Amino acid sequence: MRVGVLSATAATILGTLAAVALVRLGRFRGRLLFSGMVYAPLVMPEVITGLSLLLLFVALNVDRGFWTITIAHTTLTMCFVTVIVQSRLIGFDRSLEEAAMDLGCPPLKTFLTITLPLIAPAAAAGWMLAFTVSLGRTMHGTFSSGRRASTRPVRVISAV
């Protein structure tokens, strides 16, 4: 449960920022590479993603455990949050933000007081989907878990 909550929260924050960057920044240098990296876990097989994360953790000489499982689940679930929040931002009325900025509201405060409350339902839906996906993934947990940490799905599959 801790892995699910932490990875869903991190995925929601990072996925929301990625969606804002993809929708609001228009065409920027590296946009194709950035969107490809964000959406890669949607189309890439779970075994390939898990194995590549294992190779990354081994190359960096990181002890595998709770935090590596959380990082692996965050990388997997972030793309789901990005898709949901991006679809909400595309249909978003920008005139509300422009009105707030015309009245003297700085951009960060505009984002926090206008944009964020309006995309909060999409972010909440993204968090719930990320949590649900994180609870059911066994391959990422298998490759990124160490001797001391494991997830419940990995334990169930191992017992079978």
Sequence-ordered SSE layout with sheet pairings:
Blueprint: H1 2-24, H2 31-43, H3 46-59, H4 66-90, H5 95-102, H6 107-136, H7 139-144, H8 152-159
Helix pairs in contact: 1-4, 1-6, 2-4, 4-6, 5-6
Can you characterise this structure?
The chain is mainly alpha-helical and 160 residues long. Helix content is 79%, strand content 0%. The protein has helices at 2-24, 31-43, 46-59, 66-90, 95-102, 107-136, 139-144, 152-159. α1 packs parallel to α4 (66-90) and α1 packs across α6.
Poorly predicted sequence stretches spanning 5 or more consecutive residues: none
What's the total count of β strands? 0
Structural class: mainly alpha
Described by strand count, sense and barrel closure, the largest sheet is: none
Q: Looking at the structure, what is the overall shape? A: elongated
Percent helix, as a range, is over 70%
Mean model confidence by pLDDT: 83
Q: What is the CATH first-level class name?
A: Mainly Alpha
Rg calculated over all Cα atoms: 18 Å
CATH homologous superfamily grouping: MetI-like
Task: Give keywords.
mainly alpha, MetI-like fold, 79% helix, 0% strand, elongated
Gist of the model:
This protein has 8 helices and no strands.
